[in-house]
Amino acid sequence: MIRLVNVSKTYNGAAGRVAALLDVSLDVADGEFVALMGPSGCGKSTLLHLVGAVDLPTSGEVWVDGMELTRLSDAALSRFRRDRVGIVYQFYNLLPTLSTWENVSLPALLAGASPRSARERAIELLHAVGVLERAEHWPHELSGGEMQR
After folding, report:
1. Structural domain contains residue 93
2. What is the pLDDT of residue 15?
3. Which of 55, 79, 83, 105 is the most exposed, having the fewest neighbouring CB atoms within 10 Å of its CB?
């Protein structure tokens, strides 16, 4: 369950304060599918960043599965992101000094998997998305579509 209660997010920019979200309340039940739609700059990414604990609201409460994210410590937020959040970014966030399989295995290693287990899982995932033959390649050697997968 995702619940936002009177959530606002304001950024300080060169032109002054910018309100990305103003007093948003929302409930999303487990298993429910929701589409965020709107013009560029209306707050879609900001909303996703708040629910994914990538950012915190200026005011209001963000709840995910009974946890109020706005009350968690930095360490607890890091664990929440590591264990519970998966984000597919519009742009690629691969580390240029790691091979394809090393980039894919990194989250498993951070979660405590053994290096062997992390590599095996990375190979499975690369196979599943059709880029196993690029496992030893560097990010700059991949196409945009390969990097996204």
Report:
1. no
2. 76
3. 83
